Amino acid sequence: MKSSLTNSVILITGAASGIGRSLAIQAAQLGGQVIATDINEAGLAETNQLAGGGLMLHRLDVADADAIPAFASRVIPTLAGRPLILVNNAGVALNSGPFSETSAEEFDWLLSINLFGVIRMTRAFLPYMLEQSRSGGGGSHLVNLSSVFGFAGIQGQSAYCTAKFGVRGFTETLRMELMGTGVGVSCVHPGGIDTNIARAARRGASGYVTDAMHAQTTTSFKQMARTSPDEAARQIWTGVRQGDTRIVIGADGRLIDWLTRLLPKSYTRLFKRQLEKTFTP
Ligand SMILES: NC(=O)c1ccc[n+]([C@@H]2O[C@H](COP(=O)([O-])OP(=O)(O)OC[C@H]3O[C@@H](n4cnc5c(N)ncnc54)[C@H](O)[C@@H]3O)[C@@H](O)[C@H]2O)c1
Fold first, then answer.
1. Region 231-253: what's the mean pLDDT?
2. Ligand 1: which residues within 6 Å by Cβ?
3. Whether 226 contacts 251, CB under 8 Å
4. Which residues have a Cβ under 8 Å from the Cβ of 210 and sit 6 or more positions away?
5. Which residues pair with 94 in a beta bridge?
6. Of 9, 82, 152, 256, which is least surrounded by CB within 10 A?
7. How far is the CA of 153 from the centre of ligand 1 (A)?
8. For 41-63, b where at least 16 C-beta lie within 10 A, e where not — what string?
9. CB atoms within 10 A of CB 181
10. pLDDT tops 80 at residue 189
11. What is residue 39's three-state secondary structure?
12. Hey, which CATH number is domain 9-279, 3.40.50.1110, 3.40.50.720, 3.40.50.300, 3.30.565.10?
């Protein structure tokens, strides 16, 4: 299902930084009306300034189960039958070490943003998207941000991988369920994108991750994140406009996609060796 951004409303979560910010700026340039949301209001204002003004800004915490339906009931009446492109982009990282060092609270915190945030937003806006498609001619589109960590389980990332595999499972299910409805679905799997996500990562409270380890993770991420957020956003909007249901970003993204499908068991040993080389002082 191809979707045009012109004359659509584009609702983006996590639009105060990184990929979400670039998506918002480019969507406005492509002629869409953008509703940019985030918990970071100062960052949203900066996104709006970079876009030249004209974005609608809302503080929205995707981990807040009550705030989302309340937000949807305020926004939906303003959409006036226009196609809605919902981009579930907001996300966080957790640097807590292995699962055994990750508290239940830390694990749940990450899932509540990276997985349940996506599900809650979809639950709140999909009825409008289906109705718009039935009566308004279509063009609505759901875009969910998974990751290459939705292809591969990686040590030290149990909560993040659980969330991103979950986003992929949820989105591929909707891809089948929404066939023939006119609502498009895209699951996005970026490789390393040079954003704030690693710098902003929450540190685990167990003490397993030392200051030196945390600093090394941030530095290594910076070295490995080869794609800019602007380039990631360009590829996402191209994919959405072409009706691509599975958007893999970056040469690293394509390599991990290919390796995990070619070597579904032995990729674990291969990636572990590579990680140990990267993270050995
Ligand atoms: N950067 C990468 O290498 C990479 C790779 C694969 C997938 N992703 C995914 O892309 C998405 C965007 O990440 P990014 O790299 O641009 O990160 P980023 O840290 O630059 O931006 C994330 C944004 O989400 C917002 N956010 C955090 N918690 C929120 C909440 N509870 N409610 C609403 N907004 C919240 C932050 O304030 C921030 O503005 C995430 O889902 C991330 O998991 C990123």
1. 98
2. 13-14, 16-20, 38-40, 43, 60-63, 89-92, 113, 145, 147, 190, 192-193, 195-197, 200, 225, 229
3. yes
4. none
5. 202
6. 82
7. 19
8. eebbeebbeebeeebebbebbbb
9. 17
10. yes
11. coil
12. 3.40.50.720
Q: Which amino acid belongs to residue 97?
A: G
> How far, in Å, is the centroid of ligand 1 from the Cα of 18?
7
Q: What per-residue confidence (pLDDT) applies to 3?
A: 78
Chain segment 110-124, per-residue pLDDT in tens: 999 999 999 999 999
Contact 95, 217 (CB under 8 A): yes
Q: Report the alpha-carbon distance of residue 267 to residue 155 in Å, rounded.
A: 12
Helices (H) and strands (E) in the chain, counts: 10, 9
Helix (H, G, I), strand (E, B) or coil at 95: strand
DSSP string computed for 97-135: -SGGGS-HHHHHHHHHHHTHHHHHHHHHHHHHHHHHHHH
DSSP secondary structure code for residue 227 in this structure = B
- What is the C-alpha to C-alpha distance for residues 18 and 276, in angstroms, rounded to an integer? 28
Contact 10, 87 (CB under 8 A): yes
The four Cα atoms 159, 60, 243, 152 give a dihedral, to 10 degrees, of: -10
Q: Tell me, what's the pLDDT at 40?
A: 98
Strands 184-190 and 141-145: parallel
**Marked catalytic residue, from 128, 160, 208, 267:** 160
The closest-lying atom of ligand 1 relative to the alpha carbon of residue 148 is: 6
Helix axes 229-242, 18-29, angle to 10 degrees: 50
Task: Tell me the CA distances in angstroms from 271 to 60, 126, 267, one per residue in order.
Answer: 36, 37, 6
